[in-house]
Write a structure and sequence with these properties.
Radius of gyration: 16 Å
CATH superfamily: Vaccinia Virus protein VP39
Order of helices and strands: HHHEEHEHEHEEHEEE
Largest sheet: 7 strands, mixed
CATH class: Alpha Beta
Shape: globular
Number of strands: 9
CATH topology: Rossmann fold
Number of helices: 7
Number of domains: 1
Strand order of the largest sheet: 5-4-3-6-7-8-9
Structural class: alpha/beta
Helix content: 25-40%
CATH architecture: 3-Layer(aba) Sandwich
Strand content: 25-35%
Length: 222
């Protein structure tokens, strides 16, 4: 069995183990095909590429990580993407999550606060042919209002609360998938669906561990 096939099998095992939390026995086949199509090793530093297809996170520099493959697949699945969708990603990192999404949607707008990571990810994605991903170096708490509303928003770093700016940039009927909780402490993966301008439906999926969002942001409402 190849390393890639082992990774896909590990994702399926994780889905089975967490099925009572995530509410499904399998992930969307489109998501699994996208996971299979992305060369994950290209998104890791050369000296850490041996970790590429293990079902765990790995460091990418600047105190950041590439997420566990199962979590990438799960969060992608929870977005419920369609080919015509425009998706906003907060936290480009190495560009791996954006690359996965690029196989499923029309365009991915990705915001990364760390300048070096944003520049490297942009070059990497372009060189690998993911032409429908646009990377911006900016504070993800503010989203990317110029292209709003989005058909889905995914956040790949833990926020202390749900940023209202991201909710505002969601199209009605769209989903926001993000980890919320204490930096380096207890966090929950949450899915928020925007039912109307004044009605949100929120669901907690499972406990997770992400690096925290950085940069200036509004305080959580009292």
């Amino acid at each position: 069995m190849s390393n890639l096939q082992q990774m896909l099998e590990d994702i399926e095992k994780e889905v089975d183990l967490t099925r009572h939390f995530i509410g499904k026995d399998r992930l969307d086949s489109r998501v699994m095909v996208a996971m299979e199509s992305i060369p994950r090793h290209e998104f890791l530093p050369e000296d850490l590429r041996y970790l590429a297809y293990r079902n765990g996170p790995a460091p990418i520099g600047s105190g950041q990580t590439i997420s566990q493959p199962f979590i990438v697949a799960l969060m992608t699945d929870l977005l419920e993407t369609k080919p015509e969708h425009d998706i906003l990603e907060i936290g480009t990192g190495s560009g791996y999550q954006a690359a996965v999404l690029s196989q499923l949607v029309s365009c991915v707008y990705s915001v990364e606060i760390i300048e070096r990571l944003a520049a490297d990810a942009g070059k990497r994605l372009q060189s690998l042919g993911y032409a429908n991903v646009v990377v911006r170096n900016d504070n993800g708490y503010h989203g990317w209002p110029e292209h709003a509303p989005y058909d889905g928003i995914i956040v790949t770093a833990a926020a202390p609360h749900v940023p209202q700016s991201l909710v505002d940039q969601l199209r009605i009927g769209a989903r926001l998938v993000l980890p919320v909780g204490h930096p380096y402490g207890y966090q929950e993966l949450i899915v928020i669906e925007k039912k109307s301008e004044h009605q949100l439906e929120s669901r907690t999926i499972l406990g997770v561990r992400f690096v925290p969002m950085t940069g200036v942001h509004n305080k959580s409402p009292d």
